[in-house]
C-alpha cells in the first residue's frame, strides 16, 4: 500500500490516481503523456477546481506538473475546471528564490485551524520526506508556515494558495 494512498485515506480523499513516472525525472517523460493522463483524470472526476504546484518550484517534477495541468485544463468549451489554484511546497517553492517564475504570492486562504493535526498526521506518513528542524519540511516549520498564513487572515492556522485562473 503506497504512502500516498494511506495519506489520502486519512484525509478522506475519495479517489487517488497514481502514475508510474520516474521520481525527479519528469523531464525525461513526454509532456504530452503527462497531459493525457491529467486529461483522463479530469474526464473521470469532472472537477470544477484544481490545485497544482506553483510554477516556480525548484523541483522539476512540480514545474512539469504545473505546465501539464495548465495544458490539460485549457479553458475550451465543455472544460469543467473553472478555478485553478497553485500551492507552495516547503523546501521547493521558496528555495527557487523566484528564479523560474515570479515568487509564490498567495491570494486565497483556507482556515485549517481545526484540521491542522490531521494534515500533520498525513504529512508525517511521508517519513522519507520529513526532516529535522530547521528544514522547511520539519513538523516545526510546517506549524510555523501554517501560523504565518493564519496570522495574515486573523486565524490560528491557514493554508495559502495563489489563484491562477477563475472562470465565472
Secondary-structure blueprint of this entry?
Blueprint: H1 3-11, H2 31-45, E1 49-53, H3 60-72, E2 83-87, E3 108-111, H4 116-124, H5 139-153, E4 158-166
Parallel strand pairs: 1-2
Antiparallel strand pairs: 2-4, 3-4
Key terms for this structure?
alpha+beta; 4-stranded mixed sheet; 168 residues
Report on this structure.
The protein is of the alpha+beta class and 168 residues long. Helix content is 36%, strand content 14%. It has 5 helices and 4 strands; from the N terminus they run H-H-E-H-E-E-H-H-E. The chain has helices spanning 3-11, 31-45, 60-72, 116-124, 139-153; strands at residues 49-53, 83-87, 108-111, 158-166. Strands 1-2-4-3 form a 4-stranded mixed beta sheet. The longest helix is centred in the first third of the chain and has 15 residues, at 31-45.
Brief characterization of the structure:
By secondary structure, the chain is α+β, with helices and mostly antiparallel strands.
Oligomeric state of the chains in view:
single chain
Instruction: Please list the strands of the largest sheet in the order they lie side by side.
Output: 1-2-4-3
**Total number of beta strands:** 4
How would you describe the shape? globular
Could you spell the SSE succession in H and E letters?
HHEHEEHHE
Class by helix and strand content? alpha+beta
Please state roughly what percent of the residues sit in beta strands, choosing from under 5%, 5-15%, 15-25%, 25-35%, 35-45% or over 45%.
5-15%
C-alpha termini separation = 40 Å
What is the averaged pLDDT score? 95
User: Tally the helices: what do you get?
Assistant: 5
- Which percent bin holds the helix content? 25-40%
Radius of gyration: 16 Å
* Poorly predicted runs: none
Biggest sheet statistics: 4 strands, mixed
Amino acid at each position: 500500500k503506497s504512502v500516498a494512498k494511506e495519506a489520502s485515506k486519512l484525509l478522506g480523499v475519495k479517489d487517488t490516481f497514481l502514475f508510474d513516472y520516474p521520481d525527479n525525472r519528469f523531464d525525461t517523460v513526454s509532456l504530452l503523456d503527462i497531459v493525457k493522463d491529467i486529461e483522463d483524470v479530469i474526464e473521470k472526476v469532472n472537477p470544477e477546481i484544481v490545485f497544482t504546484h506553483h510554477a516556480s518550484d525548484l523541483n522539476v517534477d512540480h514545474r512539469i506538473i504545473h505546465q501539464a495541468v495548465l495544458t490539460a485544463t485549457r479553458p475550451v468549451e465543455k472544460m469543467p475546471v473553472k478555478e485553478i489554484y497553485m500551492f507552495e511546497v516547503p523546501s521547493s517553492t521558496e528555495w527557487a528564490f523566484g528564479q523560474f517564475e515570479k515568487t509564490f504570492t498567495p491570494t486565497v486562504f483556507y482556515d485549517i485551524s481545526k484540521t491542522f493535526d490531521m494534515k500533520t498526521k498525513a504529512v508525517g506518513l511521508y517519513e522519507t520526506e520529513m526532516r529535522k528542524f530547521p528544514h522547511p519540511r520539519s513538523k516545526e516549520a510546517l506549524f510555523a508556515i501554517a501560523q504565518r498564513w493564519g496570522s495574515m487572515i486573523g486565524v490560528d492556522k491557514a493554508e495559502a494558495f495563489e489563484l491562477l485562473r477563475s472562470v465565472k
